[in-house]
Amino acid sequence: MQERKPRQIARELALLSLSQLPVNPRKIDQLATDQLLPKLVLAAVRTLRSEVQDTLDNAAGELQRGNDRLLSSQTRASDLNTARTMVKEAIEYTQTAINQLAAAVEFPELIQLANQDKQVHQYAKDIIIIVNDNRNEIDEQISAALVDWQVTRLAQIDRDILRIAVAEMRFLSVPPSVAINEAVELAKRYSEEDSHRFINGVLRRVTEQKKTA
Fold first, then answer.
1. Tally of domains within the chain
2. Selected residue with higher pLDDT from 69 and 144
3. Is residue 37 predicted with pLDDT exceeding 90?
4. 60-69, 107-116, 124-133 — which is least confidently predicted?
5. Rounded distance between C-alpha atoms, residue 108 and residue 9, angstroms
6. Structural domain of residue 194, as residue ranges?
7. Is 125 part of any domain?
8. Is residue 127 part of a domain?
9. Which residues contact 144 (CB under 8 A, 6 or more apart)?
10. Contact, 196 vs 187, CB < 8 A?
11. Measuring CA to CA, which residue among 42, 5, 35 is closest to residue 20?
12. CA–CA separation, 96 vs 195, rounded Å?
C-alpha cells in the first residue's frame, strides 16, 4: 500500500462504510461500538466484489456483441463504427474493474488499520457519524452547487465522496483546499475516469457559495 496519512486512510474507510448505511438517515447508536467500522468495511468489500463481477460481465458482453457485429457485417461504415463503440465501452468497463480490484487488494490492510490505529478508527467514525446525522443539510449544500442535476441522481460513490468533503469543511474544520484535494484523490481511486473533475467543480462551487452566504 502506498504510504498515506491516517486521515487519508480514514477517509477511505469512511467512503467504503457510507455505502452500507441506511438510505434514510437516522441516529445509529451502534456507530459508537468498536466493531462497527470493520463490519461496515467488510460489507463494502462484498458489495465491491459483486460490482467488479458485474463490470467484467458487461465488458465481456460488449466485446462479444462487437465481435458478432464485425463478423456479420458487410464492412459497412455504420457497422464498423458500432463495433468500435462496443469495443471502446468494453475497454472502459474492464479498466473500471481493474481499478476496483486494485483498491480491493488493499482492503485487508485497511480493515487491520481500522482495528489497530486509534486515530484512523476515530476519524473514520467521526466522518460516518457526521454524514449520517447531518445528511439532509449536507445534501442541500451539494444540491445548491449542482448545475442541472440532483443529488439523488449522482452515482453513489460520487455522492459519498462529496458528502465526506462537505462534512469535513462544514463540521470538522478542514480547510476547503485540503477537503477538495482529498475528495479528488478519492474519486481518482474509486470512481469513473472523469469523475474527479466533476467533483472538483462541485466542491469549488460549494466553497464559493459559503463565501457569499
1. 2
2. 144
3. no
4. 107-116
5. 12
6. 134-213
7. no
8. no
9. 206, 209
10. yes
11. 42
12. 12
Give, as one character, the DSSP assignment of residue 19.
T
Residue 181 vs residue 19, higher pLDDT: 181
Long-range contacts of 48-56 (CB under 8 A, 24+ apart): 48/16, 48/100, 48/103, 48/104, 49/104, 51/100, 52/97, 52/100, 52/101, 52/104, 55/93, 55/94, 55/96, 55/97, 55/100, 56/93, 56/94, 56/97
Domain end point (choices 90, 116, 142) = 116
The SS3 assignment for 82 reads: helix
Q: What is the pLDDT of residue 179?
A: 97
Which of 86, 116, 146 is at the close of a domain?
116
Task: Give the pLDDT confidence score for residue 182 in this predicted structure.
Answer: 96
Residues 98 and 139 grouped into a single domain: no
- What pLDDT shows up at residue 36? 66
Torsion from C-alpha of 155, 62, 77, 192, nearest 10 degrees: 30
**pTM here?**
0.71
